[in-house]
Amino acid sequence: MAVPKHKTSKSKRDKRRTHKKIGAPVVSTCPECGEAKLPHHACPECGEYNGKSAITPDEE
How far is C-alpha 17 from the geometric centre of its chain's CA atoms? Predict the structure, then answer.
């Protein structure tokens, strides 16, 4: 079984992990109300999706 001969340094370990970060979420605007929403999701403000009423928005 393969065993490392030397300890991997923190620098070498962190360089290997540079591509595992999470990016910022993509946000689009709702064509009905103009609020920010996630793509392919119903708008949380007005409840519209693809020009139709999909959900009833929560009133607070």
Answer: 19
